Amino acid sequence: MPAKILVFGVDAMEPKLIHDWIESGDLPNLARLRARGAWGHVLNPPRFFSGASWPNFYTGVSPARHGQYLRTLYDPTTCVHRPLRPACQTNPFWSGPDWQRKRAAILNVPYCGLDETINGLHVADWGQHDSQNDLSTLPHEVAEDLLSRFGCDPVGDCEGFECTTSALSDLRQRLIRRVQRKRDMTSHYLAGEDWDLFLSVFDETHCAGHRFWHLYDVTNSRHDPDAAATLGGTIKEIYVAIDRALGATLRFVDIDSTVLFLSSHGMGPAFDALPVFDEILRRLDGFTGRHPQYEERRARRLATARAISDFMPNVLRRGLAPVRQRFGRGHLRDRVDAERRNRRYFWLPTHDTCGGIRINLAGRETTGMVQPGRQCAELIEQLTYDLHQLRDGRSGDPIVAEIVSSADMDFTGYVGEFPDLIVRWSKASLSWIESPKIGRIEPVVVSGRSGDHDPSMRGIFFAAGPHVTPGLLPDPVRLEDFAPTISSLLGIQLPDTEGRAIPAVGPPAH
Asked: What residues have CB less than 8 Å from 85, skipping those under 6 apart?
């Protein structure tokens, strides 16, 4: 019997490109799904959206509840970042007591740690973008069978590939190979049992968007016509491979199944001041001298070594972990963390299109030096003014579009660990950054990303099934809405969720 519900997830597949390539005939399986089902746009978590998108999806709650927007969380008692363990502080929707009577298979959902309570199959961290964990499965013995059938992740860390044509060509081939292996993996486990829910996520579109956007987009400041002659079609190739994987997966469902295709969030050109943001904050706070972060070049020289380690056996890789921590980014982060204890405010990571600022607040941070109340309010007022004075040196355009206080956002559950201010960058292409207070700062490119996300970007979903009402939804849905929607299709009412079941996807199936 086919799966009752099939969820085919894709990470950061840009909706505009989906529609364009549906119209050109390059994505026939998505075209058929859109034509016969309901579809709509998906709102992402504001400001924290990139790292919080999938946790919002699988928990049905916002970052205020699940506490995740990165794989690490700031600890005010030590002024350093610590790994999130478990990966998310709220259980996934399929772990509830009513789900124990349902058979579920969950494959490669981003930022989702292994669920020990699942009644079925869980595969975590095989071939995922931005993963820091080894493959894990439940049942545990599935891992050995999976590796024997489908091998190790052929990509590893996509950020570890240099920006040369030969390196990007190698990355392109590896991403396509990984789509094909995930397709085969999905088909194998989908065909192996009668599932109530089968959920599999592909995230090769995420890596492709980050690394190949400048080769697709001829207006991008980093566009290279010579490299684009051979690699300009890479993003489209990955999308076509995903569409074919969807087609292969749909062979295992029938007209009584509900099929849900979901792309979490979009992709576009990368415009941000993040590489020098903490240096900006240092200068605004009166610090001079060399910033520890400018040793990033040293960390970048280890990118090749890190990429190689991704292909090593787990035992050998774990043995080298202390070396990587001592000489890689972990060592750099320790130096940055040590300096911030002596500053009134400092940068906290959120994602590339927004920068977080943490106030070194007395009574909250161990080394706090800013008094709550009037002193803190005056500091934030001055800092906000200074940030709005930042300009692109060539055009004179402001580089800051918006500054939002976390106090104005519903993050009460984790406000002690979250940034106090969120700075959203404008879409200015930077030459250099200047203001009367900081002088001039040259931009520093520390990654090979030419594509990135923007808080205004939306995801997209298509749904088809016996109870689905076809057509475009008049209003966008939220990622939190999918947990109660999927649960309701199996007659399960999900308690304590911030989402609402999507009416067009149909009534509970019995």
From this structure: 113
